[in-house]
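Continuing the batch. This is chain 6 of the set; chains 1 through 5 are on the previous pages. Same settings as before, nothing changed between runs. Recording input and output for traceability.
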Amino acid sequence: MWHYFEGYAEDDYGIKELLFKYRFLDDTSKWVSDLVQLTNKSNKQGFSYAVDFQDLGLKYGVGLEYFFEVWDNDGINGSKSTKSSLFNFQAASVDELEAMAEEENSQLKNDIEESKKLAEDIQKDLEELQRQLLKDKELSWEDKQKTKELLEKQEALKKKVNDIQKQQKQNQLAENVYQKPNEELLRKQEEIQRLFDSLMNDELQEMMQELNEMMNTIDKEELQKMLDDMQQSDEDLEKELDRTLELFKQMELEQKLEKSIDDLQQLAEKQRELAQESSKGNQDKESLAKKQTELNKEFEALQEDLVKAKELNEQLENKQDIPDTKSDEEKIKDDMQKSAEQLQKNMKKQASKNQNKAANKMEEMSQSLQSALKQAQSDAAAEDMQTLRQILENLIRLSLDQENILKSIGTINLNSPLYLDYLQLQNKLQADAQIIEDSLFALSKRQPQIESVVNSEINAINSSIDKALIEMAERRSSKASERQQFAMTAANNLALILSEVLEQMQKDLANMDSKPGDKMCNKPNKSGGQNMKNMKNMQQQIQEQMKNMMKGKKGAKGNKGKSSKGLAQLAAQQEIIRQRMGEIRDELSGDKNAKDNIDKMMKKMEENEVDIINDQITRETLLRQESIMSRLLKAEKAQRERDKDKQRQSTEWMDNLSKRLINSFEDYQKEKEKQEELLRTIPPSFTPFYKNKVKDYFKENEE
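Output for chain 6:
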């Protein structure tokens, strides 16, 4: 609410002082004066004055009136003053600011959509020009004209993107002044803003400038190469616009839901305070009824926000599961309406009861929405982590397969039938890379942590594989090898980037789970010994599956894919139990023997995971399982003894651990059924052994 004033003051006796006077229209009894600094006390002088009305204490929705008053320097007759005209300023209310923000955000989304369409048009023009260049022997005047038109469109797109970046930054700054978002929302806003800022990369701008400068001297081959590079950059930009738009919509929905949750809580507090006032009966019925009517209007506005939130949700590609609150809203509205009618009839005690009922239901509704939002965020994060692991493992397998082809084609006769086999394998890699690209792009539209460079790298992989396939088809094996090496390098770079993203996602999920206030105190339902028994039963199931796999090995030759899938699932189950045991170990305090027992158990579990991954389930593996079972029995017994010593203490922490273990295992089973077609021969997360293999592989390629 900054305001800037410039003026001119003149008096024959000179200027003594200049004052800025104001008062708020909700309190017309007080005028406040601020001294305006003057350079001197001469007869004539100009002045400038800047003031933030919000710093003065002006509230949203309240008016302010102000004027300037100048005093002369008449020491004989006494100072006299002259006032300027009286001015008025009306601060926008929070509702008005929110309406403006919604309108500006809607315009921003439209601008992004228009930019996407323009980027698509440029893509079509690029393809058309490239096809024409293939037909022409030399670069014609028409080709140059089309290139200039293309650059003009590209310049228009650049301007649109720059305007979008500026508008988003202004919108976010303006919203944060009155919304006061929480820490989590602020972090997401920063991530979204970073995506907006990186939409138009320097490489594309330099390419445009270079092409523009070379227009008069460029030849056909140079133009084809530059257009090819530009097309790749434009594809990246189009994807980033699409992705940024989807993430912006998600953030917009989350902000609306968070605001509704906060408003519900604040409205519940106001309603409870009014219920106390009604119960005391000190105020007249008209005053109480007026206050209740105002609260009723606030609740109606809140209902409109919830409708808008659902409309925003419908715009998303991946819709959130927002609870149906219609029934609760009707009950709250009914209680509030009854209390207003009862107050008008001076039935204050009955009104107070309905007001308290409405407040209670508001709090329940707020908690329900908050719980649903947190659960949706947690579930989405866990699902995205699982997806990212699978993408990462598929990416590494693609790099390994590409390396095998690269090593082989150099030693094969170009006319050999075996060369055709490798050509088919390269073609299969092209399809695999496209699947990875689609999966990664879909994930990037849900996770702002994934940098724009990720989509650029996967595009580079696809481009290199496509060109390698063309070179192989033309029997130019040396050029094909060069392109294959580019694909491997891009895949390795991307794998390292995604590993860092996965690590950050794991930290974010851990922080989300450990935030205070998310867990409610429940009565203990099961003892720690019973929880340990559940883990023992799960481990027993793994042991039985391993025995069955050993028995069925002789007949598994014709069913290798199914066997590999089973190994992947079994390794994942073992890893889940090991991780949960690690959590229990971390939460044990002071019991060194119990921690040592769990450490030894986890080490054996890890060794078994390596055997499962490598399909090396032997008698030694089963003996190790027996040792794990023995230690689980020992841990179960020790836990029962600890439970007896702590009968009067809360066992909530162990109960929660049991739920986390069981629920995570059940969630895994559900996710496993959905992802069964995607699972290959590697478990859905890196084991320590596999991490070491990946590091060795990267190191070998760097050498």
